[in-house]
Specification:
Blueprint (H helix, E strand, L loop, with lengths): L1 E2 L8 E2 L4 E2 L4 E4 L1 E3 L4 E2 L4 E4 L11 E3 L4 E2 L4 E4 L5 E3 L4 E2 L4 E8 L4 E2 L4 E7 L4 E2 L4 E3 L2 E2 L4 E2 L4 E2 L13 H24 L4
Parallel strand pairs: 1-4, 2-5, 3-6, 4-7, 5-8, 6-9, 7-10, 8-11, 9-12, 10-13, 11-13, 12-14, 13-15, 14-16, 15-17, 15-18, 16-19, 17-20
Amino acid sequence: MIRKNPSGHLPLIAESAYVDKTAIICGKVIIEDNVFVGPYAVIRADEVDESGDMQPIIIGANSNIQDGVVIHSKSGAAVTIGEHSSIAHRSIIHGPCRVGNRVFIGFNSVLFNCSVGDGCVVRHNAVVDGCDLPAGFHVTSTQRIGPKTDLASLPRVSVSASEFSEDVARTNIDLVRGYKALQNEF
């Protein structure tokens, strides 16, 4: 469902993107080329800052927002998802937040008030809260990263983790094409 927010903003969705009919895209949202938005995802840009304005939520080209993901922002802060990034099932991305290019965010993970650099992998059930994660870092499953985390203690992304991330992104680009082709059959 595509809808306006109370400020009157409508989402801008590239023609080449696929948004499942059960997803909710609300307000000042920009979805770029070849993005896959899965069933029951919610991307909602509707809160304003103290001046009554808001920054957009931007989903970069060739990225995927999988089933049940929630992307929202506090007080009109920006949320940016880079290109070729995967936000896996039931994750929560709550702005202010920036996710770089070629990033993998695992199932049920939570990102809040943070920046996740290019090529990072955040595995399943992890939390990144209130910190900036530089490019190429690997957050393991169930790990919590915050402002007091010693980043030197985190591993770098392995070749196999990077290959897995790239495979997920490629698979979802194929799903965009497949679902777009099916849209006219029903």
